[in-house]
Amino acid sequence: MTKDKILVIGASGQIGVELTLALRKQYGNNNVIASDLREQNPLLEGTGPYVSLDVMNKEMLHVQVIRQNITQIYLLAAILSATGEKNPSLAWHLNMQGLLNVLEIAREENIKKVYWPSSIAVFGPTSPKQNCPQQTIIEPITVYGISKYAGEFWCNYYHQRFGVDVRSIRYPGLISYKSAPGGGTTDYAVEIYSEALDEKKYECFLNENTYLPMMYMPDAIRATIELMEAPASAITVRTSYNISGMSFSPKEIAASIQKHIPEFTISYKPDYRQQIAESWPQSIDDSTANTDWGWKPKYDLEKMTEDMLLNLKA
Q: Which regions of the chain are under pLDDT 50?
């Protein structure tokens, strides 16, 4: 059996860095090619091959896929919710065309598997707020959410029409100490930890009782790899799977930090991201992912806070 050769597009981003490192551990350093438009993230240096790649340049991408004998593609390049609202047409163009380029190449080259992340941003004000189900009313109000929802249907279409084995997860807000957040509405939950250690205070851009679905990065990476390693026969959802980790408010995350840093204080100054946050569910029902491929989170808020502060100090 030939070894899988994996291409990670957007490898220098918040998810890309940690996913690339995890895949290299699993598949061998030289079998995972990292690529990005940006410079290589320092955490990836010396861990395996890196190519400069623009997902919008289909010809260049196609050449790399053939040259490197790629069998799996992970497409992580995207413009996120808060950044996308500043330049909607660019966000739509990059998020859609990048995906279509990858799906077309996957079809032409018979790529074994494609991974593309969706997001809780697909949900809108009309979606259920509590335990938002896998199948429900979906009316997103950000260009990021609209592009992710459209992308889910493109993935489903390429699977049904051309048999492309494309898989997806609707990520909640992701929290990590290794790489900086990328311009999302849930970024406060990453910033708050480093500010707590450095400044002992934080001004939050959401109000204190804004509950959002969140996940610690180790769980998100594990979920992604578990989904990709599940047998194709187990995958019943070809749009994108709901997955859940935990839900908390800025007030609750502050309280969990104060157990470790009693002098830490938080203040609130909601901005345009408040409206985005309020349009999303407060918690997610992920029973379909649990049934299909055994998904279960390992981290809750307390466990994550302890781990975040420990690693950021180090």
A: none
Residues 138 and 195 in one domain: no
Output the six-digit token pair for 278: 């309020």
Domain encompassing residue 14: 6-172+216-242
Side-chain-side CA neighbours of residue 313 (13 Å): 10
What is the token pair recorded at 259? 């157990």
User: Is pTM beyond 0.85 here?
Assistant: yes
CB hemisphere CA count around 254 (13 angstroms): 21
**7-56 confidence digits (pLDDT tens):** 999 999 989 999 999 999 999 999 999 999 999 999 999 999 999 999 99
For 198, the enclosing helix (H) or strand (E) is helix 188-198
Nearest Cα neighbor of 172 from 304, 8, 284 is 284
Q: Check whether residue 67 and residue 137 sit in a common domain.
A: yes
Catalytic residue numbers read 144
Q: Say whether both 182 and 115 belong to one domain.
A: no
Q: Assess if residue 151 is contained within a domain.
A: yes
Strand bridging mode 113-115 / 118-119? unpaired
Q: With residue 302 as reference, give the H or E element that holds it.
A: helix 301-313
Q: Look at residues 70, 182, 46, 57 and name the one whose alpha carbon lies nearest to residue 117.
A: 182
Length of the chain: 314
Residues 6+ apart with CB under 8 A from 199: none
